[in-house]
Write a structure and sequence with these properties.
Blueprint (H helix, E strand, L loop, with lengths): L2 H6 L1 E2 L15 E2 H5 L9 H14 L13 E2 L2 H4 L28 E4 L6 H18 L3 E8 L5 H6 L5 E4 L7 E2 L14 E8 L5 H8 L1
Parallel strand pairs: 4-5
Antiparallel strand pairs: 1-2, 3-7, 5-8, 6-8
Length: 209
Amino acid sequence: MSETQVNTETIVCNIKCNNCENVLPPHTVKEHLDVSDPIHKCPHKQEENIHLEITEKKKPYINKSKSIYWGTPLHIKINYQGWYDPCPYPKPLWDGLKTNWLEKGKVFCNPPYNNIIHWAEKCYHEWLSAVLANKDFECHLLIPARTDTHYFHDYIKDTAEIEFIRGRLKFIDLKSVCDNATSAPFPSIICKYKNTKKDLSIKIKILST
């Protein structure tokens, strides 16, 4: 066997790491003989340091435990100038869930994501009121695309038109809780509730003849 073959042959020894007292992993003869080789550094400690570096790195995602105040991205908000916002920031003294949306005509809602069910329910009932009252009404609800939830099936699926947003939205960090770009960790959708006033005069004429 040549010297090169010997040096590259993998061996298993019982040498323990000086740092952690664990047995070193399999290594070549050359690594075993060369004390300056990285094999003699603690591989277990290196793996631990890599793990710590990954876990300690700040994620550029929304941290809902720190804040529920995330502003609508400007490229979306610009499409709703003049629309009524029932949950603006800073939080007003009045409760948007208790106001009359129907009289506003057009509503855009980017609700607190810790209470989506009540805002979806509000959108549904305001739309239903518009249908029963035969009034023009449009409401757009910006929420995560959680199509497996009860509120999606109860208040959205059969009532609203769904616009799936491509990519992940970068919401505005209204409380400055993140150092990096606040990309949402979820896909988003805009649920569009719409009712158009119907001309009932034709039906009245037909019934009167």
